[in-house]
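agent> Task received from the user: take the single chain below, predict its 3D structure, and emit C-alpha cells. No templates, no multimer pairing.
agent> Plan: (1) validate residues, (2) run structure prediction, (3) serialize to C-alpha cells, (4) report one or two observations.
agent> Step 1 OK, no nonstandard residues flagged.
tool_call: predict_structure(input=
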Amino acid sequence: MKLEKMNSENIYYGFVAGAHEVIKQRKELNRINVFPVADGDTGSNLAYTMNTIIQNANIESSARETMGSIAEAALIGARGNSGIIFAQFINGIYMEMEEIEDFSVKSFSNSVNKAVEYAYKAIAEPVEGTMITVMKDWADSLESHRENVADFNELFASSLEVALKSLMDTPKKLKVLRDAKVVDSGAKGFVHFVEGFLNFIKTGKIEADLHSSDELKLSDEHVHFEGDFDLENRYCTEALIEGENLDIDNIRENLKEYGVSLISAGNNKKMRIHIHTENPDNLFFKLKEYGRITYQKVDDMKRQYESMYSRNSDIALVTDSIADLPKELMDKYQIHLLPLNLLIEDTNYLDKVTITPSYFYKLMDQLEEYPSSSQPTVLEVEKALNELSEHYKSIIVVTVSKQMSGTYNSFIQAVEKLSKKDVKIEVIDSKLNSGAQGLVVLRAAEEISKGKSFNEVVKITRETVENTDIFVSVPTLKYMLKSGRIGKAKAMAANLMNLKPVVSIDEDGNGIVIGNAFSTNGNTKKIKELVHEIMEDKTISRYSLVHANASDRLEEYKEYYKELLGMEAEYIMEISPIVAMNAGIGCVAISVTAE
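)
tool_result: status=success, residues=595
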C-alpha cells in the first residue's frame, strides 16, 4: 500500500509488526549471540523487550503521543544490552519529534537520525560492528533517500538494503564475530525489526508469532563459542529507577566505576540501566540515592557460561538464597542460586544478590517499616528451570523448609508447568534453613561431583536432611518480634525475664524454641549441651558456623567446637539478609550433620 504519511495507527502497527518479527527470530538470535558475552540470550532479551511494547503501548490521539507510549513501554520492558539500546533509540525518536499529527518522510528521517545520537550516548564505550552501527547506517540511508522516494514504502525498502549490507559487514569490524563466523546478534535483531515494519507498510498486515511474555524464555539454542570464560565482572545487572528530574548524564557518569558494558536509557522521570559488575549490591546501594528502584535483574554470566559450555555434570543442583553456603563452594560445585525477595520500604531486593548482609545491617535499625520477604514467583522458578533443562539431563533442587517459606511450593508448581518433560527433576524440602540447609546442599554437590547417579544423589540428600540439625543463639527477641516470627505478648514476657532463646527446627521443618537462658553465656551453654546430646548416639561428621555481624561471639564457638569435634568447621560465614531479618543482629548458629 502507498503510505505518504504515518499517523498514530500506522506508527503503532508498524512497531508491533517489527516487534513480532524480532520475536519470531529469537532462537536464531540466541544461537549467534557471542558479543559482548557468549551467553546466548540476546534474542530472548530483545523478544521480551518487543513483547512489552506489544502488550503495553497504545494508539493515542497524535503521532507523538503514540510514539511516547511506545517509548515508555520499551523503556519499562528493556532487557539486555540490545534491548536497552533499542529502547533508548526509540526514546530518542520520541524526544526529537515535533508536535505533529502525522510523520512525513522528512520528519521521520530527521527524528531517526537524531535518535542515533541517543543510542550512542546510552553506551559508556560504544563498539562498532554492533546494533548501533547498523542503526547509524540505516538512519544515514533514510537521510540520503528521503528526497528521492515517493512514500514510506520506498523509503523503508531502500534503507533496508543498506541495513542488510551493514549487518553483513559487522564481522569485518569485530574480531569476535569473525572468529565465530556470525554477524552481530543485536544488529540482526534490529534488521528484523525493520523488515517487520516494512512488511506492514507493504501489506497492511502483521505476521504475529503468538507468544506471551510468560512463554519467552531466556534459553533456546546456542552457538558454541570457543574460548575461556574470564570475566572480572560476572553479573549482568539491570535496574529501572524512577524519580523527579533524574540527571541521566550525571548518573551515567557516576556508575562507570561500578563495572563495564554500561548502557543506560531514559529521561528525567525513568532510567533503565544495564551494567556488568562484580558487586551488584554496591551498585544498588548507590542507585537508591537517585530514585526509587522499581525493577532489578541479575544474571550470573559465569554460571550461564558453565551451563552451556563447561558443565561439571549432567545433573544441575539448585538451591535458594536461604541456604548459607560460601560463594567459593557454590562456584566449585557450580551450584545454581535462586534468590528470595526482600522488600525494604518500597524496593524489592534480591536476597544475597542485590543486597548483602553488610548493607542490610546498616538499614535494620533505621527503617520505620520493618522489611518483609517473599518466595520467588512460579514464573521466575519456571524460567530458571527451563533454562537449566536446555543443558542438563536432570535437576535436583534443595529448598528452605516448606514450613518457613512458599519457595518449595513455587518449585513444585513450576515443575508441573515445565515445557521439557523429559528432564528429571526432584524438589527436596530440606526441612531446614541457613547453615543446615547449606550442609545438605554441599553434600548433594559432593555426591554429584563423585559421579553418583541422579537417584543415588537424591537418596543421599534426603538421608542428610534427616541427619542435620541447627541450633541458633538469639541474643534479643526484638528482631523476631519485628519480623512477626514471635507474638508481641510472648516477646514482651520474654524480655521482662531477659530470656535468650535457643531456636532450632523440628523434624517437620517448623521453627521451635528448644531452650531458654537468662544470659548470652547461658544460651551458648545450652547449645553446647544440645550438641553433646547428639554425640551420645551419633558421630558428627561435619559442621558449619554462621552468624549475623557477631564476629566477637563467633571466636568462642570456633575454638570450642574445634576442640570438641576434633576438626575445623566446614565453613564459617554471615547469614543471608532474610535470615538475619528474622533472627536478628548478633545471632550465632551451629549446624551439624551426624551419622
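agent> Step 4: summary for the user.
The first strand starts at residue 235 and ends at 242.
agent> Done.
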